[in-house]
Amino acid sequence: MIQKQLRWGILGVGQISEILAPAIQSSRWAVPYAVSSRSQKKAKEFAERHGFFKAHGSYQKLLDDPKVDVVYNSLPNWLHCEWTIKALKLGKHVLCEKPLANSLSECKKMIKASKMEKRLLVEAFAYRFHPQTMRIKSIIDSGKIGKIRIIRAFLGFPLNLGTSNIRFKDQAGGGALMDIGCYAINVIRYIVGAEPLRVYGHELMGTKHPVDLTFGGILAFSKEILGVFSCTFLTVRDFQLEIIGSKGNIFVPSPWQPESTHPSFTLQLGTKKQVITSKRGGNVYCLQVDQFSRCIREKVEPNLSLQDSLANMAVIEALQHSSKTGREIKVIKS
Ligand SMILES: NC(=O)c1ccc[n+]([C@@H]2O[C@H](COP(=O)([O-])OP(=O)(O)OC[C@H]3O[C@@H](n4cnc5c(N)ncnc54)[C@H](OP(=O)(O)O)[C@@H]3O)[C@@H](O)[C@H]2O)c1
Asked: What's this model's pTM, rounded to 2 decimal places?
């Protein structure tokens, strides 16, 4: 019997957990129940800072806690598969950070476990839960900007190259494509509502880091639609999305972290520009926690399916293959 509020537990107390914890705290559907870290001290300090009841000195202890209903997996990419499957097998629902895993084969194992255990698993692309995203999609689907021709997505921010950030670890699903390029691919596929047929990718490797610090990609769809993206750890903060159609275009200044109070984007038809503000804004991470909890409680499908996550990873792998071989790659249906 599922209770009204679900008890959330967090695996790992890193950067993103610091952002998710207040979202769990403020959600009326969730209870900030337990946190876990490899360090008991870190877990205790985090729990005290964010009002969680329990602090565990290992991830396994949190999973063994029968009171935990939902696990938020905020571990580095190379630990997503292992700990998500462990959690699912112990009867927990899992919100797992993006990208869902390090590879397509890992994604498949996670999806299989979610189906077998009948537990919800969702990739934490928070922007997919925000009304701004849905508003943009509905304008496009209404045909207002005509036929979509080009989608451009840019993600960049300065990452300190002198640190030992998880994003610099090669075997660990590091690099710009995995870390932020996954958003660009996800939004382009979502807007088009189909899978690309072919992709071309180009990576710029670091000299001292064994990962792509910059990645550029092209996604070719049928019906004369092209998605173009770039992602990098080497520029000023720059996140943008533009959808260009045969009759108009949409420019989104904050596609992945829409503003809480007045999220807005620009719709241009001919010379006429209109700023559109989503009425029901809110913190994107709170919306994610609310909707994930509601999906469990009310047994409704989340806005982001596991098939969608799988297809996203198939495109990531095709782009990686392309950049290694210098060839255009056909995307295999997942
Ligand atoms: N959705 C978003 O907006 C968003 C934003 C940022 C990151 N992310 C995703 O969230 C995940 C974590 O990113 P982050 O920026 O929070 O990373 P982070 O600050 O490095 O935190 C990762 C945590 O994982 C744990 N960990 C376990 N084994 C580790 C190891 N060998 N090396 C380093 N850490 C290890 C650590 O927790 P303990 O020390 O407590 O055990 C660490 O604090 C990634 O999958 C990333 O893609 C999502």
From this structure: 0.96
